[in-house]
Design brief:
- The chain is an alpha+beta fold.
- It has 5 helices and 8 strands, in the order E-H-E-E-E-E-H-E-E-H-E-H-H.
- The protein has a single domain, classed as Pnp Oxidase, Chain A.
- Strands 1, 2, 3, 4, 5, 6, 7 and 8 form an 8-stranded antiparallel β-sheet that branches.
- Helix content is 25%, strand content 33%.
- Pfam families: PNPOx_N (PF01243).
């Protein structure tokens, strides 16, 4: 049976900061549930009840579309080395785009990337720590450079064209607001 906390403790923060991968779960009221692995230097803990993560351009845009419909989000961390632990942060999320006032100050917390698509702020209302004794052990070999290299080749104009083509709607047809909230026009 896991332990439940109202906020991240210093021990939780240290565990999170040591992780190389985390998972984000979102869902609208109906339709597909999304679970996305995230890595790289893309997560910041802003306080015991707030974390932010940078969403880079990818093939789908489920998290943004889901949060606009239903702001619940779960972020999960697993120990793949050392003592077993699964840590989940549950709460309500907001999606921020380039046109939103908070964008510049929050984006400055992360390494620059032409692929920066959205920022998510999770207001944590519950943290659960559970054993994770069946999670296998893995050795970290390094971050993949594929997305960074692809993004650099695309350049800003190519990234924005990709958003127009692939990132406006979720798998279930929900709007992501990426164009309007990033100050971009749809192709006519």
């Amino acid at each position: 049976m896991g332990q439940v906390f109202e906020a991240l403790s210093p021990r939780h923060v240290a565990f999170i900061e040591a992780q190389k991968i985390y998972f984000v779960g979102t869902a609208a009221a109906e339709g597909s549930v999304n679970l996305s692995p995230k890595g790289g230097d893309s997560l910041r803990i802003l306080g015991p009840n707030t974390l932010a993560w940078l969403n880079l351009t990818g093939s789908g845009n489920e998290s943004a579309a889901h949060v606009l419909q239903h702001p619940r989000m779960t972020v999960m961390f697993c120990a793949f080395e050392g003592a077993p632990l699964i840590l989940r942060a549950y709460g309500r999320a907001r999606v921020l785009h380039q046109g939103d006032p908070e964008w510049p100050s929050l984006l400055a917390l992360f390494p620059p990337s032409v692929a920066a698509r959205q920022l998510f702020l999770l207001e944590i209302d519950k943290v659960q720590a559970s054993c994770g004794m069946s999670v296998p052990l893995f050795d970290y070999q390094g971050d993949r450079e594929d997305l960074a290299n692809w993004s650099i080749r695309q350049g800003r104009e190519g990234i924005e064209a990709y958003w127009r083509k692939r990132n406006q709607r979720s798998l279930d047809g929900l709007e992501s607001e990426i164009l309007a909230r990033s100050g971009l026009q749809a192709d006519d």
